[in-house]
Sequence to fold (619 residues):
Amino acid sequence: MKNPFHHKNRHSVVDMFRPPPGYLLDQAIGTTYSVDFVTLTSVMLAFADAESDKENGPSIPEQLFAFTRLSDRLKLFVNRGCILLSGVRESSRICAIYDSLIEEVSLPEGSFHPKLWFLSYKPKQTPENAGAKPIHRLLVGSRNLTLSNSWEIGVKLDGQSTIGKRRDLVGDVLSRYLSSIQAFTGCQSSVLDTAIATLPSIEFSLPAGVTECSLAIQWPGETELVSSLPATGKAAVIVSPFLGKTFVERVTKCFEKVTLISTRREIELKLDENIVTSLQPNLFYVNDDASAEVTTRLSLHAKLYFFETSDSQLMLIGSANASRNAWQGINSEAMLAFPMGINKSSFLEDFIHKSKSELQPWIERYLPDDWKNREPETEAEEIDNLLSEAQDFLSRFTFELIYAPGESQLWLKALDKRQKSSLDDLIGREVEIGAVPISMLQPDHERQWTEHPLGYAFACGITFEATVGRLTQFVCFRIRHTASQASRMVVLKCSKDNFADYMAERNKELLRSELSAKQFALFLSSLLFGRANPSGKRMREIVKRKEHGGSSGAGSYFDVLIEDVMLACTEDETRIADISRLLETFDGTDPDGNEFVDADFRIFWAEFQRAFKTGRKGN
Fold:
C-alpha cells in the first residue's frame, strides 16, 4: 500500500466518488459528521461524472442538474446541527431542495461521527460492457463533506457480489450498521433497503500487499471501539487533530513507546505536563504555516493509528479522534483495521523525518520548553467555545414546521418547552439566536435575525410569509455573541407537519423560478449528454440558432441528435424518465415570457420515445 501521507501521493477526494470507466452510479449512501451544500453538490456532480465550470463552486443550474440526476439514488446521514452554509455564494433558496436527501442523526450524548460511503455502480449498456457486473465501492476515512484544506486520509475498496465463502465480513458489518441507523432514525428509503440486502454478499478487493481487513464500528450502547485495540504493546503511533487526555494517557501507559502527532493548540489545551514529558522526544505537531514543500499550507484532520505488539501489528484509518468519546462508546465511529498495511517506519520517515537530522517542513517537535511558554486560552478561543456550546444546545432542540396554505404562512414551533431554560441560560451569557428558513435567507440583511428571535418559537411560534415554492425543512440559525459580534450559522432539519402534499409542487416551483428558458435548454443538454459530449455541444448550437431567429424545425433536432440521444438513453435509461418529468415541470414560459421548451423539441422527444420503444422491442 502506498504511503498516503507522502504529499506526492495525495489525491482529490471528489475523484474517489467518480464512476469507474464504463459505469454509472446506481445508488449512494453516505455518513458524515458535517456537510455543506457546495461540497455536497460537487460530490453529486462527480457521481454523475461531471464537474463544475465555476472556480467558486457549483452554479444554480449545476445544483439542479445534480439533484435531478440523483434525487432518488442518494441518501446522506449527518450529525444534527452540522449542516453548514459555508461557501454558498448564490441564492441559498435552491439549497432547500436537498431536504429530501439529507437525514440528521441526533445521538443521546455523543456525536454521529463516521465518514464512510457505500456506492454501487452499474455498467453502461454498451457492446464493450457485455457481461460486465456491478461494482460496489466502500470509502472510509477522515474527511467530512465540507470545504477543507487539510491533511486527510481515506481508503477505497472496490468489490463485487459473490456466491459462497468470502474473505472478510466487511459487508456484513456495514449492513448491520446501516440497519442500526435506519432503526434509530426511522428513515424509509429504498436505497437504504437495497444496500442492507446487498452488502452481505459483497467481497471487497484489498490494496496490494494487504491480505485482510475488518470494519470496526461503534454504535452507542454496543461494543466499544477500544475493544479492537491490543491491551498492551511495544509501540503505538497516534495521528489525530483532536485529543482527549483520558485516551492519550491510557495509550502512554499501555505501550512502551508512543509517538503522537497532532496540532499545537490541542496539545496545549488538552494534555498535561506529565503526558507531554512522557511522550518526549516523540511528540510532534503539524505546522500549517510552514508547508513550503507542498502545494498548499495544510492543517491536520487525518486520523491514523499504529499499534505494535511482540507478535502483531495493527493499523486503523477512519473517523475516530484520539479521545474518550471516540473510542469508549459515546460517539458513533467507523474505522478500517488492517493487520498489515503501511509500514510504520516508512510512515514515520516520510511524514515526519526528511532526513536523520531534519524534520519535514510541515512538522515541528513539541518540547517541554514549549509547554512552559504555552499561551493561555485566548478570548477569541473562549468565545468560539461558547458558540460551539450554543450550537450543541441548539442541536438538541426539537422544532416543527407547519404550513398554512390559505394564509400563505409557515410556522416554526419548539416542541419541548422544557428546553427553553437552556436558551435562557445562553441569552444570559450574551448569546442571541435568530431563525430563518433557508429558502427565505437574505445575505447581509440584519433585520431578518432580530425580527425572528428563537425565543418566539417557544411561545406562540415564529411566523414567515411563504408560498409553496418557499417550503423547506431546513431552517438556518444564526448564533451570535453580542459583545464581540462573532457569529456562526448552522442549519437544522425540522420535522414537517403537513408538507407531504406540497413537496412535488414545491420542487416544481423551485426549478421554474431558478432557471430561465435559455438556462433550461443548456440544462436539458447536460442531462442528455453531459457537458463535454460533442452531441451536447451540437444541441447547444441549435438552441443558439433558434435564439437568434434561425429555425430548422424538429427535423434539425432529428437529423443531428436522434442517434446520439438513442445511444445516451440506451447507456442509461433513467435519462428518459428524468427528461419526461422535466418537460412536464417546464411547461409554459419563464418570467421574461420565453418558452421553456419549444414545440420543435416536444415533437422531437415524442418521436424519439416512440423510436426508442420500437428499438427495445426489436431487441
In short: Residues 148 and 433 are 26 Å apart (CA to CA). The longest strand covers residues 23-32. Residues 551-555 have pLDDT under 50 and may be disordered.
